[in-house]
Write a structure and sequence with these properties.
The chain is α/β, with parallel strands linked by helices. It is built from 16 helices and twelve strands. It folds into two domains: 152 residues, Rossmann fold (3-Layer(aba) Sandwich); 135 residues, Nitrogenase molybdenum iron protein domain (Rossmann fold). Helix 2 crosses helix 6 and helix 8 packs parallel to helix 16. The chain is globular.
Length: 307
């Protein structure tokens, strides 16, 4: 009850502050920006934000590429070197458990949340109730990245959209058009360090799996619920993929060790991909985190693995 009252007091204080600022700056501010976020909410920033909170590390990277500075974020953003350890942390990890009390007390004037983490939708709803501007952003494709980068660059008033966005379009378009994996069946896996953490991902379930499909591959998990719900060896043997790609979840070394051991099992050894040594680990910095200004490099990396 005490925590609730404290949070309520903070909300009321910020409502008063927002009201005062609205009177001072008004809609005719020098830096009024209007845009629609990834889930359809319209946001208006009446002036350039000064205390920005970004609650997902890949979005924090985009904000920094656009020329923005971060005042509030999550632990993973600092661990990856995107923000300094002087920022206010509202979660020690990736952003799945945001401390809303700390977030509101930090008095951000703009907050960016991620649709990757369902719990952040609740955070965004709370912020809207307090009149703190919040944008829910999705980056699952290169086109999504371009949209988010353009919004951030417009807010920051920089040319980052051309420098880190459209400059990649030509090379990515050429690779998509060439379809180096056309006619190839693939299995895409996200793997931790135990059987329970090894999951097949369809083209709609992971951005790297979507990239492989754009390069012409047929993902055997698409439309195969037995593969999505549990790694069915029967289905995998039946589909017999030409390639296997996997990304690490959690500890990278432990994941690699577990997958290497798993693929030594007799059933896996019967697969064409294993016999032909066409199973590949995809580096975390390009295929676990969103590649941001390295999307073209990520596409080229995948294309180079094709026979």
């Amino acid at each position: 009850m005490k925590r609730y009252c404290k949070l309520l007091a903070l909300l009321l204080a910020l409502l008063c502050l927002a009201s005062c600022n609205a009177e001072k700056n008004g809609p005719d501010g020098d830096h009024a920006i209007a845009f629609t976020d990834s889930v359809g909410y319209e946001i208006v920033l009446h002036e350039q934000p000064r205390r920005v909170a970004v609650l997902f590390s890949s979005l924090a990277e985009i904000w920094c590429l656009a020329g923005g500075e971060i005042a509030v974020t999550v632990g993973e953003t600092v661990e990856r070197g995107i923000a300094s350890d002087a920022v206010t942390l509202v979660d020690s990890g990736a952003g799945k458990a945001i401390n809303t009390e700390v977030l509101i007390a930090a008095a951000p004037d703009f907050v960016i949340t991620s649709t990757d983490i369902p719990a952040q939708a609740e955070v965004a709803a709370l912020l809207r109730e307090t009149n703190i501007p919040v944008a829910e952003m999705r980056v699952e494709t290169f086109d999504d990245y371009l949209n988010v980068l353009k919004t951030c660059a417009d807010i920051c008033g920089t040319n980052a959209y051309a420098r880190y966005g459209t400059a990649q379009q030509a090379s990515i378009g050429a690779l998509r058009e060439s379809k180096p994996l056309a006619g190839k069946n693939i299995l895409f896996i996200r793997a931790g360090s135990s059987a329970r953490s090894v999951k097949a991902k369809g083209s709609a379930d992971h951005f790297a799996a979507a990239m492989l499909s754009e390069l012409g591959a047929t993902n055997i998990a698409d439309g195969a619920s037995l593969l999505i719900d549990g790694l069915s060896m029967e289905v995998i043997l039946q589909k017999d993929p030409d390639y296997i790609f996997y990304v690490a979840m959690g500890d990278e070394t432990a994941s690699k060790a577990y997958v290497a051991e798993m693929l030594q099992e007799e059933a896996w050894q019967a697969l064409s991909a294993i016999r032909g040594e066409r199973w590949f680990y995809l580096p975390k910095e390009l295929f676990h985190y969103k590649p941001c200004d390295r999307w073209a490099e990520a596409y080229a990396y995948l294309a180079a693995l094709a026979d």
